[in-house]
Amino acid sequence: MDRDEAKGIIDRIDAACAQAGRVCIMEVCGTHTVSLFRSGIKSLLGESIHLISGPGCPVCVTSQGYIDAACELAVRPDVTVCTYGDMVRVPGQVGSLESQRARGGSVEVVYSPRDALTMAKQHPDRQVVFLAVGFETTTPGTAATVIAARGEGVENFSILSGHKLVIPAMEALLAGGEVPVDGFLCPGHVSVIIGAGAYRPIAERYHKPCVVAGFEPRGMLEAILHIVRQVADGKALVENAYGAVVSSEGNAVARDVVDRVFVPADAVWRAMGTLPDSGLELREGFRAFDAVGRLGVEIGPDVCPDGCLCGEVIQGKATPAECALFGTACTPVEPVGPCMVSSEGTCAAWYKYNRPAQPGVEKA
Predict the structure, then answer these.
(1) Closest Cα partner for 344 from 132, 54, 120?
(2) 3-class state of residue 324 by DSSP
(3) C-alpha span between 359 and 361 (Å, rounded)
(4) Beta bridge partners of 93
């Protein structure tokens, strides 16, 4: 998209804002947060568009208790913890997985749960635990791997389930009424699995426009235009600006695999508390692959680090610049909270693309 095309869409957004007034849009996906900064869209939009980040970073919404349980497993002499790379440096109460590895713990970075299963087969003398963290995008891979583990009779492989569901989190934010969201920029990756139609309850029950978008500048700008026009017209519809990839019904095959292995369950979200049916636990026939039951690890309470506003940031209640730790005590080199660790974290995005000249002075 060239400059003239971008200006044309932005002019139409400004025209719609003249009727709608100031519009607050939450980007639910962490990749959207990064893409909006990297493409320069945030700096091009006028003051009538207020973009805020939501609970769309799977690492950021993972509770402190889960991190602590993973760290406790990592130092057991007969256990190897396998994880995606962005979980390694998330601080827990006793350190991170990185620091546990430095103390002699067994922590391996993998690219997929299948890699963890392969490691379990190669090391039958060790219990291999995969940290199953992520939204609907990564859950089918975990489910397929658990099915394969049972089919192949691999008895030393298990998962610590931290999978989350997007829709319950969106509903919880709206039900709380603390964040004045006018519409949602819905996640492209997740929507491939759940389908654009999954957002209809949000649009109908809470009267909030929901527009699915990809991650290129044109797609995101067009999605923002759709949201603003709906607000101006007093509508609340589900629209799909990522039709090349996302369908209304989503990927039924992937969802069937997940439904075969998992069942919705209450889950603890960082700083948001326990949200009903917002997570996934293994069904009865697959409980043998649950690390909690097999290894007796306890997932403790969610404890926020002193002074850290990650919990407020992922709910759109605060910006990173409003956190006293941002850019001073908390940096990508020495993070205090997960929002500064993950590549999809809002604080990491602000630090890289939007760091204020003075702490506490907001740019975007």
Answers:
(1) 54
(2) coil
(3) 6
(4) 95
Burial of 227-261, coded b for 16+ CB within 10 Å and e otherwise, reads: bbbbbbeeebbbbbbbeeebeeebbeebbebbeeb
Region of residue 240 (phi > 0: left; psi between -120 and 50: alpha; otherwise: beta): beta
Residues of the chain with pLDDT under 70: 356-364
Determine whether domain 62-165+250-295 maps to CATH 3.40.50.1820.
Answer: no
The whole-model pTM stands at 0.93
Q: What is the pLDDT of residue 358?
A: 46
Distance CA 81, CA 134 (A): 16
Distance separating alpha carbons of residues 314 and 27, to the nearest angstrom:
11
**pLDDT of res. 360:** 46
Other Cβ atoms closer than 10 A to 359: 16
Q: What are phi and psi of 29, to 5 degrees?
A: -95, 135
List own/partner pairs for 6-9 with CB under 8 A and 24 or more apart: 6/44, 6/217, 6/218, 6/221, 9/218, 9/221, 9/222, 9/225
Handedness of CA 348, 35, 62, 169 (dihedral sign): positive
Selection from 230, 246, 144 nearest residue 192 by Cα: 246
DSSP annotation of 289 reads G
CA 123 – CA 357 distance, rounded (Å): 50
Position 289 scores a pLDDT of: 98
Spatial neighbors of 220 by CB under 8 A, at least 6 apart, are: 32, 35, 36, 39, 41, 185, 213, 214
Dihedral sign, Cα of residue 105, residue 110, residue 114, residue 118: negative
Hunting for tokens 């389930």 — which residue is that?
Answer: 161
DSSP 330: B
Helical (H) or strand (E) element with 229:
helix 217-233
272: enclosing H helix or E strand: none
Q: At what angle do helices 139-151 and 113-122 cross, to 10 degrees?
A: 30
Please say whether the beta carbons of 210 and 183 come within 8 A.
yes
| Sequence ranges of the domains in the chain | 62-165+250-295
pLDDT at residue 178 in the model: 87
d(CA 231, CA 97): 45
* Phi, psi for residue 177 in degrees, rounded to 5: 70, 10
